[in-house]
Amino acid sequence: MISQKKFSSRLLLTICTVFAFLCFVSSPVEAAVQRYQFDIRVANVSRLCHAKPIVTVNGMFPGPTIYVREGDRVLVNVTNHAQYNMSIHWHGLKQYRNGWADGPAYITQCPIMTGSSYVYDFNVTGQRGTLWWHAHILWLRATVYGAIVIMPKQGTPFPFPQPDREEVILLGEWWNADVEAVEKQGNSLGLPPNMSDAHTINGKPGPLFPCSEKYTFAMEVEQGKTYLLRLINAALNDELFFAIAGHNLTVVEIDAVYTKPFSTQALLIAPGQTTNVLVRANQIPGRYFMAARPFMDVPIPIDNKTATAILQYKGIPNTIVPTLPNLPRPNDSAFAFSYEEKLRSLNSPQFPANVPLKVDRHLFYTIGLGRNSCPSCINGTRLTASLNNVSFVMPQVGLLQAHYFNMKGVYTTDFPDNPPTPFNYTGAPLTANLGTSKGTRLSRIPFNSTVELVLQDTNLLTVESHPFHLHGYNFFVVGTGIGNFDPTKDPAKYNLVDPPERNTVGVPTGGWTAIRFRADNPGVWFFHCHLELHTGWGLKTAFVVEDGPGPDQKVLPPPNDLPPC
C-alpha cells in the first residue's frame, strides 16, 4: 500500500490508482516524490483447487501498481519479512548513474536479507509508458511482480487518441507446487524443472481451468468507448500470444516507447516485454474472452494451456457464454515474424529515434545450450547455457560494488567479443562436445561509445527463441533474420531510420537479431535471457560501462543502506 505520509501528489496518486487516464490531464506541474512501502510477506493463495503459501508484496498477487509521472523521484522501501533473500528490479527504468537502484541480486547489490529493509531511490527521467517491477533473485518473480505506469509530463498528451479508460493486464504463470522447490529439484537432477500448471491474467487463470470461476479477471466496457490496455508478460519461461475475441488491437507502444500505430488481431509478447494497445468497444454488446497462450516453434515441452479473462459490455448478464478469439497456432513462426516486422518507433520530432549510425564496437554473441559434467545428476550431466561458450558464474558480492570500490578477484573483463570457434551456427543439431567454459567474465565498454551487438541463435542441442534484456538501457533493434548472420550482406538491410526501441528483444529460433545502443550510462549492467530457466543455466553476462570525464557522467556513490554482502 502507499505510505500514509502526505505528499503534494498523494491525491493525484489516489486518482491515478482508480482512473489512471485522469492523470494525463490534471496534476501539479512540479516533479513529485512518490513513496511506496513494499512489505515482502508470505500469504496463502488458492488457484486450480490448490492452496499454498506464496511470497507477495503487501499480501497482493500480483503486487501493487506503481503510478508515477515522468520526472518524478520514487522511493520504495522494501522490508523483507519472508524466509528468502530478496531484491527488486525496476524493469526498463534506465537508472542513470544509479545502478544501486537497479535491483538484480549480486549484480548491482547483495540481496535484502530476512528482517532487513532497503530503499530503492530513483528518478524517472525521459521515460513514459508501461514498465514493470519484479523480484530478481531465484525464481521468486513467479509471484513477486507488478506494473509501473509512467504518466507523461504535465501538458504532454499521448501521440494517439486519448483513451476513455485504461487497464493493466499482467500475464503470468502459476505452479501448484512451491516454485523454489520445483527449481531446486530441476537443478539437483540437472534437468529442466517441471513446467507451470497454468498461465494467468492479472493473477487469475480463467474459467477454462478447474475451480477458477471466481479466479477470472473481468473488465467492463461501454459501447463506443476506447480503452488502453497496458500488457506485461511477467511469465517466467513462455512467450505468449494475446488476443480479444472480435476486437482488433492497435499497438501504440512497446517497452515504454511510442510506436507507429498499427492494427492487429493478435500480438506476441516475450517475457520481460510490455505492449500498450488501444481497443475500441465497437462490437455487438456481449462477453468476449481475452486469451493468452504460448508461442513455441520447436518441439520442446511447455505449458501450452490458455489463460482467459473477460471483456464484458456494460449491462450484459454473466449468464452469456463468452466467445474465444482465434489465436495464432502455437508454432506459428510466420505470424511471429510478420508481427515483429510491423513494430516501428514513432520517430517524431518530439519522440525521435536517435539510432547510432556509426559503430565503435562490434560484438557477436552466440547463444547455446550445452551439458557439463555433474556426477550427482540423473544422467551424469547438467544442462547449461552460454553466450560465446561462456556460462556465467554468479559472484558472492555485487559486481557494481566490486567495480566502484575496485575490488580484485571478483570478476574479469575478458568476455570475448566473438565466439571462440566459428561454425555453422544454425546447421544440423550438434550433440557432441557440448561442454562450456565457466566464469564471471564481463565486457568493458568505454563511456559514450556506440555498440552493435548481434545475437545469434545456434543449434547446440536445439535452436530456440530467446528474449534478451539489457539493464540500464534501451536499444534499437536494427535487424533480424533467419539462419546465420552474414556480416557482409545483412547490415545493408538494417533499418536505421525508425527501428523499434526496446529493453527486451526476442532472438528468433534459428536466427539472429542485431541491436545498437550508446553506452552513456556508467555502471555495471546485467544482460541476460529473460527465460528464467536459461538465466539460471548461465545465459547471462554484464557490461562494465566506464565513467565519463564529466562530474555528471560518473557512477553515483552507493546509498548508506545498501544491503551488506
Automatic annotation (TrEMBL):
Q: Which reaction does it catalyse?
A: 4 hydroquinone + O2 = 4 benzosemiquinone + 2 H2O
Q: Which GO terms describe its molecular function?
A: copper ion binding; hydroquinone:oxygen oxidoreductase activity
Task: Describe the task this protein carries out.
Answer: Lignin degradation and detoxification of lignin-derived products.
* Statement: the UniProt record of this protein carries the keyword Chloroplast: no
Subcellular localization = Secreted, Extracellular space, Apoplast
Q: Which GO terms describe its cellular component?
A: apoplast
**Cofactor stoichiometry and binding remark:** Binds 4 Cu cations per monomer.
| Source organism of this protein record | Sesamum alatum
Q: Which cofactor does it need?
A: Cu cation
What name does UniProt use for this protein? Answer: Laccase
